Amino acid sequence: MNTKIKQTIALFFTVMLLFVLVLPPLSAAADASPIKIGYYEDGDYMSKSQSGEYSGYNIEYLQKISKQSGLPFEMVDIASWNAAYDMLVKGEIDLLPAVYHSEQRAEEIFFSGQPMCSIYTTLNVRMNDPRYDYEDFKAFQGMNVGIIRGGVDGERFKSFCREHNLVLNIIDYDETSVLLEALDNGTLDGVAITHLGKNSTFRSVAQFSPSPLYFAVTKTNPELLSEINKAMNNILLANPGYSRDLYDKYLAPSVNQKPVFTKEELQYIKQAAPILVSYDPSFASLTYQSKKSGQITGVTADIFEFIAKNSGLRFEFEAHNQTEALQLLQQGKISALALSDGDYLWDGRNNINSTLYYLRAPTSMITRYNSDKLEVIALPQGYQLSEAIKAANPHYTFKYYPSIEDCLNAVLHNKADAACTNTHVAGAYLSRSAYQGMRTITLAQPINEMCVGLSASGDPKLFSIINKCIQYLPTEQVDAYLVTHSANTKEVSMLEFIEQHLWQVGCIVILVLSIIILLIGSNLRNALHSNRRIQDLLYKDELTGLYNMNGFYQKWEENNTPSKQQSFVVLYNCFWKKKEENNTPKKQQSFVLLYSDICQFKFINDNFGFATGDQVLQASGKILQEILEDDEFCGRISSDHFALLLKYNCWEHLDKRMQNFVKKLNCWLKAKTDIPYKIDFVFGVCLIEKNATIDLHQKLDLANYSRRYAKDTPGSFIVLYDEKMRAQALLAQQLESRLDQALQENEFVVYYQPKVSMKDGSIIGSEALIRWNHPDKGFLMPGVFIPIFEKNGMVKKVDLWLFEEVCKTMRTWSEKGYPLFPVSCNFSRLHFQQSDFPARICEIADRWNVPHHLLELEITESVLLEESTTIAEVFQILKEMQFKIAIDDFGSGYSSLGQLQQLTADVLKLDRSFVSHGVAGMREKIVVGNVIHMAGELGMQVICEGVETQAQSITLQEIGCKYSQGFYFYRPMQLENYEKLLVADN
Predict the structure, then answer these.
(1) What are the E-state strand segments in 758-822?
(2) Core-most of 58, 540, 571, 688, by most CB within 10 Å?
(3) What residue stretches are annotated with the GGDEF domain (predicted)?
(4) Is the preceding peptide bond at 285 cis, omega within 30 degrees of 0?
């Protein structure tokens, strides 16, 4: 009796102590009040969507500060900047972003220690107003110009006017939106305001007074200023270019904005002869020589085409290696380098005046796969990147070659151990068959910044014109150039092509010979018929009757040639001009380009035959033709891929059209075939404007890119191309290129999550989980990189590395006398497609003397449906080797206990959805309880995942589950902590 009383008293005081320890932080958290942020509509700096979401440069910077400092922010909507500033001075709000510094304001408010960005003031006019050229001060006289009342940018504009003797009618406005509306409707001739950002619909004719913008803090809250400064310092220490990244995202020029030139520059353009530019013909994919035309091609060639189109300049190109080009530039025999990468010291030595950079890229080191030797590095002459690499690595021997191709050949023939260039050039060359035995490693430094190099002795107006064009070159446009030329630089010899496509080449040869024989034997009466047949072969898909890829492009060209448009205008004027004489022109019709894909089409061919697959394709083509409207067309690009050009009114309407198409196809499928399930499609979408200047090849590439994204994203149906896809692709590329180096440098870390008996909390085993301590991206969870490696097969390296690390650790535990419990490791389905997988697993375990029965091999339930026969055979071999088999995430898919009996698994891990969806009701308890009972009858140990509360643990024990794995007992932990737990538990 006394013992029970003592235990009760001890338990009571323990609970009270825990309550006292936990209560203060809860109270403190409850007392914390959010920081009030002043918000007013300010375009790309701050805006609010119809759904109430805030976005823009200022908002994203504030969110970053909130993450760094833990400060909670609350947006306060205010009518205007002046009103927001008054509230800040009075202490009615705590913080206001994007404030210019002045001595008067410094007496009223605090300013952050670091600027949030540096920006300039602009004089903007309407895009279609022809009265004003860039810095045309004579034309500016007498303008009606609006400014924000009391704003620093307005005062700076007044100083600008005094400096240039401008006499204007300056009008004050209180709100930015009202000011811009006045310019748009013609009330004002111009507005003087801080740079408007990426989505501006106006044209800048003057730029002046670059100045920093700060976060402003009320003087009633000095502690907040300290927190803001600390957070900004941490942000800039981690990423010194953070402000520049935000500038590129929100404020950099877009495709809608064009460069503006002075009258002197326009006169220069009008009178200038073609400008002679040198390019390196071996610097693919940036600059290289087309084998068909002998002309310059590549990303840089497209950029010069952009410059020519936006300026009116004309260019002529000559191919020289970079060393020769530098000499010709100094001699005045050429005017510019298509690609120059020097800093100011390099430019000074070579008489170069470099523009803004149009492309940045990391450096890649290229080595042979079969060699770890690194003593001699080959570098291309004439590039500042080569000099920077040499300066940073004085312990290596360097050899210079005329071109990067010569450098790679030197590595290939053992004359050098490595070559260095930027990642774009490295990727282009390593895609060629001649360099398949090489690998690339991405280096953190130096970063290669590429620009146009002009002669420092040349006319400064030429430099100014090209520099402005590059300033207005959108990043998404450069990305499109990179996408286009990344695929175009791969070279395949004729012999290699024939070996790879022997059957297709044979068919084509036979077809061509047949056509030749038919042409020779035909008479004049059949000439017209033969010509039509050739046209069909060239432009039509024989199976569906739709356009093929050539026909699709041809149809686009036919619909957009000037002659047809002009003919239409003539007919219009003849028949309808009088009728609609007083009507305003209609708004130009927008279009979308769709790239479609039939999901699991290979499954249809494999299970129902190619004839059924062809019927599905024919029906798809027929229904697509039925849904087309005027000026719309479609084609079959390849296999089960279709391309469509459709009118675009709104996203909902487009989605509904495609849903109706799939619905009609499935109705046909049910009536005409034996296929028992519905067919799903995915669509990638790219928005375009219908005019003759659109590059359809580029747009089709982008639509195909979003189609691949939709197919890789579960639940996706129709996806619009955007920057997110590009970012994900870049992340995947970075992680893929880093994997081998990460494995060598032990960047991966193994965590262990214990499995326990819920009765007494004792450990019965653990699961090994992988984390990636990435040097640049921080601590990455497996959900970030495992899906990427699953797609390209690299996951097999990661799985085997994890398994070997577990075996090493268990050998150490055995030597230290620690208790040994089973450890489970996850394996991808890709391993079970390889016949030597059991032997490799056995070899690793035996090498470290780990008993097989202490190693569990986990595979997810979803894989059972896809590869059940193959997996059953592999499971049988593993069981004979005494390994344990575990089925992970059971209940998340559609497998049955009958399949489990066939696969003879040892451990069944119930998916966390059993717990998260609740097992409190009687029906849920019956279902879960019967699953546990049946699995036990089949001889399997049942472990429930995702147990996070005591109530869940008690309920699961009541229905017969003994073991669990979840946060209620233990979170995944590092090796040292798990070893301490093993010792303590023992």
Answers:
(1) 763-774, 778-780
(2) 58
(3) 589-723
(4) yes
